[in-house]
UniProtKB/TrEMBL annotation:
It comes from Pseudochelatococcus contaminans. NCBIfam families: ParA_partition. Residues 52-232 form the CobQ/CobB/MinD/ParA nucleotide binding domain. InterPro entries: CobQ/CobB/MinD/ParA_Nub-bd_dom, DNA_Partitioning_ATPase, McdA, P-loop_NTPase. Residues 1-35 are annotated as: Disordered. It comes from the Bacteria. Pfam families: CbiA. This is Chromosome partitioning protein.
Length: 260
């Protein structure tokens, strides 16, 4: 795990964080997220929900959650835009697979794996009810840009010590962002839980020791998710009455109740 680059070096070139011109009056302290005053994310504010899924550790099921959350909202009649900020483009691959299978498009998907994501997103999502950002797998300028665009952040973690250790840098970055952007809410979401394992049962207790909360909803390791992704479908489409579909429904319900 690489050490987190010093904040004053990593963020100083961001357009949202330019140092104000010298004035006679005392100017607010410049920070990576703007000034010490409350920093507004972008013109996206005022929308129902702008959620970024971020974790520097790969293989935590971030894209599966992103597409399923977007799909669940779309099936409820909402206009959803999914921004794929992962250079691997896995969310875009899923939508392409869906198109190849002749399935109807559920939501708009745009590849936006650029450091200017927070600057470009407002125009791309102007008419969206909800915006889901499938973030990059590493802490970098892309993750920073996703934080500047989002109002809520989900950190998917598998119930293992490795996942919790790997999330430390992301948690630190979010916590610092919250000092200057108090409207930014963040939480863990347990994903791919195997209910028969001891660590699976103890995962929630371990998360209570973290500085960020964890959502009550959990998504377990289920074959239907893998089958659905391969077919360009949602678990709800593959098996409408399955436990997997119910878990996604519960997760989205909790997201919609989550205070912004």
């Amino acid at each position: 795990m690489s050490a987190l680059t010093p904040i004053h070096e990593t963020w100083k070139n961001d357009n949202n964080c330019r140092r104000p011109k010298k004035r006679t009056a005392k100017t607010p302290k410049t920070t990576p997220f703007g000034t010490a005053k409350t920093v507004r994310s972008s013109k996206l504010e005022g929308r129902a929900m702008i959620v970024a899924l971020l974790n520097q550790k790969g293989g935590v099921g971030k894209t599966t959650l992103a597409t399923h959350i977007a799909g669940e909202l779309a099936l409820r009649g909402q206009h959803v835009v999914l921004l794929d900020a992962d250079p691997q483009g896995s969310s875009l691959d899923w939508t392409q697979r869906r198109s190849q299978q002749g399935l109807p498009r559920l939501f708009s998907a745009v590849g936006l794996a650029r450091e200017t994501l927070h600057q470009e997103a407002p125009e791309l999502t102007r008419r969206a009810d909800h915006v889901i950002i499938d973030g990059p797998p590493r802490i970098a300028a892309l993750a920073r840009s996703a934080l500047l665009a989002a109002e809520r952040v989900l950190i998917p973690v598998q119930p293992s010590p490795y996942d919790l250790w790997a999330s430390a840098e992301m948690v630190a970055l979010i916590r610092e962002a919250q000092v200057f952007r108090p409207q930014l809410a963040a939480a863990f979401v347990i994903n791919r839980r195997v209910s028969t394992t001891v660590i699976g049962r103890e995962a929630r207790q371990a998360l209570t020791e973290q500085p960020l909360p964890a959502l009550r909803s959990e998504v377990r390791q289920r074959i239907v998710f893998a089958d659905s992704v391969a077919a360009g479908r949602l678990a709800r489409e593959t098996a409408p009455d399955s436990a997997a579909a119910q878990e996604i429904t519960a997760l989205v319900d909790e997201l919609l109740r989550w205070p912004s």
